[in-house]
Amino acid sequence: MSNDPSNSDATHRTHPTRRASPHSTVARDLAWVLVVTVAAAACGALLDVSERAYRWTRGVERFQLDELPGTLCVLSVGLAWFAWRRYREARGELNRRRVLEEQAERLLAENRRLANQALQAQEFERRHLARELHDELGQYLNAIALDAARIRDLSAAREPEIHRVSLGLIQSASHVYRQIGGMIRRLRPIGLDEFGLPSALEHCVDGWRERLPEASFSLTIEGDFTGLSDALTITLYRLVQEGLTNVSKFASGSRVEVFMVRAPRERRPGQEDEVIDEIVVTMADDGPGADLAKPRGGLGLIGMRERVEALGGEFHVASKPDGGFLFCARVPAQAGLADEPEPVN
Ligand SMILES: Nc1ncnc2c1ncn2[C@@H]1O[C@H](COP(=O)(O)OP(=O)(O)O)[C@@H](O)[C@H]1O
Ligand SMILES: [Mg+2]
Q1: Atom of ligand 1 nearest to the CA of 301
Q2: Which domains are delineated in the chain?
Q3: pLDDT, tens digit, 9 for 90 and up, residues 322-336
Q4: Cα 232 from Cα 228, distance rounded (Å)
Q5: Would you say the CB of residue 287 lies under 6 angstroms from ligand 1?
Q6: CA atoms within 13 A on the CB side of 268
């Protein structure tokens, strides 16, 4: 958790007003070159440097050292030309990189938007399916169970065979009813639409308390969770749901702590005036943990990360063998509101 990219971002971000423009640096450097040249010419005139050099080089003329000043002059012009070419090249490269970075940023944003849309479509379809199962199949199953109960009552004294069949029918109907109930709950969490996210999560955790009596669960929720987009609400629910499913699979006897907090986001330099809330979900258990350096199967954690990143958030996992398991997701509270589909009538 220590190498939080948001922190490193903040450290490396330079305030735009403090960055000197390349043009002003060029002008300043050229001015320095001119000042140093004029100073050198003045010193040369004061100290008769050429005359001294001439007197000195005349003695070693056989080595052609008297040609040195001219040669050095050509060399310095050549070096200046070389430096200028490299400078132009570096600027061109910088511009190309900037264009590519902007392109990558745009593609990333588009990718996030599409992933978000895909998840929303999936949730929409799940909700639709849950409603269909409840309204259509549920009603008919209920009718079948009621009819079977009536047959059971009518045949009780006269038709033992029909009575037995009707009992089987009632049993099958209630089995299918329970199965469909489970499917509906998985497709669309109970209470999420009616009572909101905190109640739905409490209900979900209560379910696990019953199913895993050897584990202990604590759920802490702080802040206001109304007004979130449906995409964010369902994402937060699915994070906890998958995290608790993982606890049941890999850390069934452990102590599990779930936190969901809405808090003002850490402000970055240059964004002091912007007040943005973020939702932070953390789940930690003290179970056997996992070696994160080893390749892992499964799609749960990948799906969690994808959901969070599609909403412009960050997802981190921390664990070590015998050291428990922890995940933390941070998502901007207004995530997904802009992409909210128009209500369907
Ligand atoms: N709470 C946990 N405790 C220990 N290991 C875990 C926990 N949650 C996840 N893991 C490890 O991470 C792996 C990936 O989890 P996940 O992506 O949910 O896949 P799956 O649940 O299908 O195995 C698991 O196989 C397990 O090794
Ligand atoms: Mg899993």
Answers
A1: 17
A2: 191-267+274-345 (3.30.565.10)
A3: 999 999 999 999 988
A4: 6
A5: yes
A6: 13
